[in-house]
Amino acid sequence: xxxxxxxxxxxxxxxxxxxxxxxxxxxxxxxxxxxxxxxxxxxxxxxxxxxxxxxxxxxxxxxxxxxxxxxxxxxxxxxxxxxxxxxxxxxxxxxxxxxxxxxxxxxxxxxxxxxxxxxxxxxxxxxxxxxxxxxxxxxxxxxxxxxxxxxxxxxxxxxxxxxxxxxxxxxxxxxxxxxxxxxxxxxxxxxxxxxxxxxxxxxxxxxxxxxxxxxxxxxxxxxxxxxxxxxxxxxxxxxxxxxxxxxxxxxxxxxxxxxxxxxxxxxxxxxxxxxxxxxxxxxxxxxxxxxxxxxxxxxxxxxxxxxxxxxxxxxxxxxxxxxxxxxxxxxxxxxxxxxxxxxxxxxxxxxxxxxxxxxxxxxxxxxxxxxxxxxxxxxxxxxxxxxxxxxxxxxxxxxxxxxxxxxxxxx
Length: 411
Prior knowledge:
Elements: H1 30-34, H2 39-59, H3 69-80, H4 89-105, H5 115-126, H6 130-149, H7 165-239, H8 244-273, H9 289-298, E1 302-306, H10 314-334, E2 339-347, E3 350-357, H11 370-383, E4 386-391, E5 397-404
Parallel strand pairs: 1-2
Antiparallel strand pairs: 2-3, 3-5, 4-5
Helix pairs in contact: 2-3, 3-4, 4-5, 4-6, 5-6, 5-7, 6-7, 7-8, 7-10, 7-11, 10-11
């Protein structure tokens, strides 16, 4: 049924409004509204109901009225209502129950006339209209009891008697079984819908975590390399006229730092282009601390490594390397000190690393930018570790990280 345009108001104030179905008719969502009607199943069920009622009429010709035009019209109407069981499940449940009650009250033979009621109520329960389906069945059952045990003397056929209560109990059992099956199907569909929603939410969460990871990687790579490039560019500009050879050295450092940054950025982006594949290059770890020390030296920062360089698990190794890298970058950018100390310890199943500089801070962002410190904390928290970062009592700045030695795969 298409929506009809309501006529415009006589005053002409505003566009015409569309007519909406009453809320009690419970039209389904737009996707189901556009779906094709179940013609094939409805035609097959209608044919079955007509054929089964014909056989029932032959078997009950002494007790019930013969099928006439009105009886067949009722059977076709009850089955035809099922065409709208997906769009108007509540209306179909009550409609099929009403048609079946009229058919029985008119004295026509029992048979598959109740099958459309079962299908209509089944669809209503599955669609979530449990109360409407049970109400429709209850009204049909109450009407049948009224007709079969009280009004049967005033209704056709003449001389009809009430059915036995065992027959009534048998019919009630079948009705309850149909509704119970409907409830099971409804619960199963709701569970499947919840599972799909949870999987979609988990996929979105994994995507957000992956974007955050890539953002941290890019920040750490670019912040460190660009800091080195910035310092060396300043040195090169200052010495370009008075000491061309030193300026050439600064430009060489800029070239090496930019090449390394491009390589690491390409490695990060490769994980986006080919998700799930093994990376083409190994992830950086603490074994590359000498490279960090060398890069810091090019930027004018002397770095001392205290303790033996450990080899923790892959996740901890990468996180520790990035934390040291970001801490040294912050020293270059935000500290007046040209010396930093990195201390590494492995004890009690944890990796402790500490980065100190003697300060003083050269700007408002003492110790580093908000994004850099936040990235370090996120890395540590993702592994179940902790980060403490702040000024020391005797001046300078300290970053202290405690990370688990090995990280479980499902973390």
